[in-house]
Amino acid sequence: MNLDAQGRPLSRREQFGLLAVFVAAFVARSLDFERVLLPDGEVVFAVGDAFYHARRALYSFLEFPDLLRFDPCINYPDGARIPHPPLLDWTTAGVARLFGSDVASFERVAAWVPVFLASLSVFPIVALGRWVASVRVGLIAAALYALIPICINYGQLGNFDHHALAGLLGSCLVLCFTRVLQIAAGRPGDLATVMMLLALLRAAMMLTWTGSLLYLLPGDAVLIWVASSIGNARLSRALGLSALASTLLILPIVAWMGDGAAGPFAAVELSKLHVLLYGSYAVLCLANGTLAKHYPRSDSTGGLVRLVLLAVPVAGIALMLPGVFTGLQTGLQFLGASDGYTETVVEQLPIFWGEGAYSLSVAHARMGALVYLLPLVPLAFFRLARSSNKDFVGWFLAGWTLLFGYLAFGQVRYAYDFAPAGCVGFALILFEVARRIEARGVFAGRQSVIVTILASALLAPTISGFYAPLVGLAMHGIQGDLDEIDTALLSIPGSQMRFAKLVAEATDEEGRCTPGALTRPTYGIVAHIALGHALHYSGQRATPADPFGPYIGQENFDALMRFMDSNHERRAEHLMETLSARYVATAADSLSRHKTSMLVRLHENDGGFYEGVPQLGRFRLLTEGPVGGIGMLSMFGDDEEHFAPYKLFEFVPGAVIELQSEPARQMTVKLPLETPAGRRFQWRGAARANDAGRIRIRVPYANPVELRSAHLTGRVESLGPYKVRVDERRFMVNVTEQQVRDGDTVYARKFDVRRFETKARGANQVSPARR
């Protein structure tokens, strides 16, 4: 292991290289500016949790220094404690207030925060590479981190999620863990300073990421294991004091925020479990250090046995507390994607999975050819460990990258957590290959050149799948080619934002979730889970479930899923009433659903009679959009163009069209409609007469005598009256809005078909429905 570089300051050339890597990281994460920073001043946040982080941070921005802890607009109608730890949202709100007092200023700051934080991560990565090998290894590792697409995605402009801050803190934590291990092995270093920094980083990580224990527990377990194996009482006590400091830092915040829906000891959110675990860890370390000082062991086995004997009762007492075991079990289910929710979350699918199937091109777009080196990284650190028997760093990094590398193959998001240490491993592999090439007399004395060529070749597959589209879009924007285009519609989150604003315009104001208020709205929107946070922030509307999944309210989450899969309108109506919902927002997803399910009947068939599937008499299409927008299915390989990817339906009592006929006769109903987006379609209904010859069809739409423009009213409008047919008999029916609202019965009457068709020929020309 080359440690010569550790004791000297960086040369000017190395400083320039570090600055260049930081700039490259910053620029690479800013490339999507055309789709994020819109010409009208609006900001498009990344799909999913970024929208909700923005909502929570906006509350603190408006009500600083207050923090939104309980939100009545999620898990509606019950509301829920917000599962996200508060550090990112609260600090961003405080920083944003330094740049302005309006919402636009806040949004611009929030959009740039992930870029800045993710770019800062290159500094601890350079330090990590420097400490385990050399400055050159650190610079190459940081350059890889700066340019690997999967690392860019999680720190990209507009991705105001925890990932960028968690990645920065995670990089610093790995660096701290390695420094402690180096000091334990006899390397020079100030243990007290490192432990103070570790205490702060540990607390900051717990206040940033719900999955912080995945980072912290393995690292701290290794540290106390090493301290016990070498009989270092001072290190054990220092670990105990550091853990105690971390516990005391988070304790008041945990107490202030209260318990969440997942329970007081939830592993999937900041909870008392974090206090319990690190309080117990502090007790264990302090007890172990005290015994090691007064009763030293001459062999490593004795120290480890003592640690185990101390850990068993401490862990046993902790697990005896009600709810602790359940909380840990829930965390393991989430980690293993076995909670029944993660199958539709793209970031929780395998790294080789994309566009609906296993795909090498998708993996190449995420990591380039480096994805094939991922299994070799632990081996590179094992080789490093064998070169120095007294150094624990190599063994630690081998185990660390083995854990996160394994998780990355199963869930792509863990590739980002793998990356800080993993990129150092990539750099070690590249330098070893370069050394062997150089030993053959090729590019003698040009090891850095060889490494640069190898790294470029490994990253080359990312050009077509990742960089080319982003750079091309940026160039078109700079040249002014996109001036006449709504660039928000070029992305999924931008399309969701535009739809959420349509929802806000089309629905009643009494359902508004004002950013700076905590009042409970009078109704909610049963929305596809993926639309939840966009509706919370951009639409300011409440939903019973969202990307938080079942962790903020299992009952309402299950009710929403039952609604989407329900085959019976009566059951769906009951669920709407249970959830106090007036509207339904739909989107196509990747799940296989039966054609009789509510989601398919609404989103694909507009609630009308289709291929033998009955019509829905209490759900009417209100609006759809945005025209030309991108739906979620594009993430799963759906390249089909959709006229409007999202739709909003209103839940109404519905009027009943009734007609007397002969038993078993079938009545059909048709109503020509036009959406605000300009699409024309026929709503169809069908029913058969009962034994008494009475036929009844519930209809959700009104058809005013005076035709109105859907474009002007912002909601679906009829293009004429209902046309009712029983065998060869035809009828015309007009239904008023009040009759729809009151659930009245309207009787069909005979009319002159030829006169009506001549009068309404223009209005009834219907374009094919595009879904």
What does this structure look like?
Among the domains are: 165-335, no CATH class; 654-771, Sandwich (Immunoglobulin-like), CATH 2.60.40.3390. It has 29 helices and 17 strands. The strands form five sheets. Strands 10, 11, 13, 14, 15 and 17 form a six-stranded antiparallel sheet that branches. Strands 5-6-8-7 form a four-stranded mixed sheet. It has a three-stranded mixed sheet with strand order 12-9-16. It is elongated, with a radius of gyration of 30 Å.
- Span between termini: 61 Å
Contiguous runs where pLDDT drops below 50 for at least 5 residues: 1-5, 751-771
Q: Identify the overall geometry.
A: elongated
The level of helicity is: 40-55%
* Rg, alpha carbons: 30 Å
Number of distinct beta strands: 17
Strand content: 5-15%
Per DSSP, the total helix count is 29
Q: What multimeric state do the chains show?
A: single chain
Overall average pLDDT:
88
The structure class reads: alpha+beta
Sheet with the most strands? 6 strands, antiparallel
